[in-house]
Amino acid sequence: MKTPALFDEELLYECYQCARCTGSCPAALAVEGFNPRNILLKCLRLGLQSAITDEKLWCCCTCHVCEDRCPQIIDVTDLLMSIMNEAARHGYMPEKVRVSTNMILHTGRAVLVSKRVAHLRKKLGLNPLRTIPMDEVEGILEKTGLAAMMG
Amino acid sequence: MKYAFFLGCVIPVKYPGFESATREVASALDIELVDMEFSCCPSPTVIKLVHYESWLALAARNLCLAEEEGLDILTMCNGCTNTLKEANHVLKQEPALRKKVNEILKPWDREFKGTIEVKHLLDVLCDDVGLAAISRRATRRIPFGVACHYGCHFHRPPRIMYPDRLSPSKSLVPTQMDDVLTAIGVRIVPYMRRFLCCGAALGTKVDLDAANEITKEKLRHMADRHVEAISVACPSCFEQFDRAQVLLKPADGFRFTMPVFYISQLLGLAFDIDEEKLGFSEHRVKVDPLLASTGVRGEAGHPRREAEQGRGPIS
Lengths: 151, 315
Description:
The complex is a heterodimer. Chain A is mainly alpha-helical. Chain A has helices at 10-14, 20-24, 26-30, 36-46, 65-69, 76-89, 95-107, 116-123, 134-143, 146-150.
């Protein structure tokens, strides 16, 4: 299964580098060197591959506020998402993201279930956590290619 | 009213109190919740960024489970809402993608048909239950000033989350939380940068300290307006605000003590539901001082006492 046609590289040409995306970006506010405008420029000038190795790429919180503000109505978050997808295909992703992805792949949940959970739920009068049919979940993620990609 | 109850990963494991509060509130409002064998939604800040196709296929499986029972999905977490709404939207709009996903799901006898909707708890409360019914059920006053934080994934991007309600020509920001809290008599405190991200996604993926800087910015604006408590519609936003207040040291010049409430905990208080069911024990910023000093807890704030004084239920 190939990447769906949701990532439209033509959108890069719509960008006139006004930096409204970056001015409104919460992650750019907090992380020096994370700059969505610059990532788009880099992709346009040097190609997608030039943007995939810098881990700062993953600072995008996917809050989509850049899209609300972009005068050219570019789906900046979706562009960044596609670049992250490409980075992951080449093995580049932050350790925390790798751990969470493997957790979902093997347990069907994004959060580790500690021993305390059962006790907490019982105290509140809740039923124990339902089991997740992992044959099916892992089977699906094998067919999509995630299992092979994560190794 | 009957829904497939989508718990997500964070709430049932880290904050089961939000689940039990929601179940209590739902039962008080005659909402029936059906549990199913859902997996992770999966998260829009993890798998979607790593492998879009896997994100779509796993989301489709979750949607199929609810479709098979003929039920709309009720979500409690913004991440789940964002993923399931977007996947539902994409799969309804793009026949080619739907075909690919259905081929993947076929060995398990599942087929995405596009017959249901995904609704956040706040939307069920506003649109399906109705504000009047909520207001009628509220018997206890909540006399403290609350800041609403919706969280980005609740409403962005508007072209997918609320194509009919939000747009650049109308408004880009939602009102459901303000509406529900106003209906139970809560005083909403406006503050600067209401729709700024909480920072959680940056912390879970890359850098928690940087994430807390974003959170600090928001907390500062809230404190400037003398906010007494924060209301959220998402467990990730909750964790971020709750944890950052403890982690941000007084040495930074900031000391925040604004307890954070998940929306159904505030409804639970207003509905006079047994506090044991609302799960305040997992909060890092303790709610007890606020509940005691404002009279929500204890005899002074009890609805029957207020009725005796001629104030009666909130209308």
